[in-house]
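Worked problem 6 (solution included).
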Amino acid sequence: MSNFNLYTALLPCFDCRQQKAEASLGWLTPAMHESVLEQVNAIVNDSNDYPDDIVTTVTCSVDEAKYYLLLNAFAYSEEEMQTTGVDPDDLFEIEREIKTSKNADGMIELEHEIALQGCNACCPE
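Solution. The predicted structure is:
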């Protein structure tokens, strides 16, 4: 799991679309990060007509999918997983999600949502 990092990126403001604001990309492996950034750039460079929540696809192995879901969908911290463990009900849900998200190549395809943030001009503190 040590190859997962919490990534952010400067993306267009959800309001004006002209300025940039730092948005969380979530916990990703370096390969996932690269793929997500490519997909996001393709979406935002295509036009200004895109939603405030950008949906991309993460493709990964079964093991990576487990950690991805624990960190992103179920909001476990690395420390929490190591010290207190994972709730059995959450593990059941994760296994179910992995089974339904397997593609023909045996890889797992998961939707990954990124919420655009407001820039300083549109959302002053």
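Discussion: The longest strand covers residues 20-28.
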